[in-house]
Amino acid sequence: MKIVFLKRVPGKGEKDQVKDIADGYARNFLIPQGFAAPATAERLRRLEAERQAHETEDSATVKRLTELGRNLEAATLVFTLKGDDQGSVFGSINKDQILKALREQGLATHDRVEIALEHPLKAFGDHKVKVNFHKGIEATLNVRVSREI
What we know:
By secondary structure, the protein is an alpha+beta fold.
């Protein structure tokens, strides 16, 4: 029997996968439990329409995130920290502060953004910080830490 999985069933199939399964297993377990439904022509058309809509949405998201990445690479975030005359920094800049500044300046939106910073920035000067968006898009952000006067 040809079925469409409505939920992931470990070892049998993934959600929205169309597969041939033994008739008894499908009729007695998968369909009554709500894990699958018969693969009717209407259900298959609906599934294909959902896949195309999802692909269109994904391509639009990738395009938008790529543009956002280009804008990030052209921008420089400037933070000021207190310090002494010997170059010691009093404080640091962490991931949360960078993300907050990105959102305040409109460089990051509601999308998931991950700042790849192993440790807080504790030195004056320019720093390159890697920013990861979902869908595998990456950008390098320039962060300048200057001394407060």
